[in-house]
Amino acid sequence: MEPSRTGVHLDARAVYDHVKTRARDSEVFLWGHSLGSSIAADLASRVESKTGRPAATGIVLEAPFNNVQSEVRLDSMASHLAFLPWFDWAFLGRVAANDLDFATDQFLKNVSSPLLILHAEVSQLR
Q1: What's the farthest any 2 CA atoms get from each other in the chain?
Q2: What confidence tens digit (pLDDT) does each residue in 83-124 have?
Q3: Count of C-beta atoms within a 10 Å radius of residue 104
Q4: What's the number of CA atoms in the CB half-sphere (13 Å) around residue 4?
């Protein structure tokens, strides 16, 4: 099977269901880093829309991104091609068409769990 957002969600949901069963009444937090932040947001959104209850006591997103399309557009390699008229079709359009649309910003619109976002600027050590 090709990697996809749907496949990753199924994996995350299986882990979530296992943890919720084992945790019983204990608090459960979701934590995601980078791409994992989008997976955690997607999971929380889907669970909450299905159950009508928050998926977790809280969600921590470390170094998240808004969505894959903006990441591709802002990539230093893409900046050399982004001005071309076919860039959106060739690169950004293929993201959704191949079920790779990790849209953290859209997923979080449907989440009511408390949210902590951790991010830092990378600096050079001298």
Answers
A1: 54
A2: 888 888 888 888 878 888 899 999 999 999 999 999 987 777
A3: 22
A4: 10
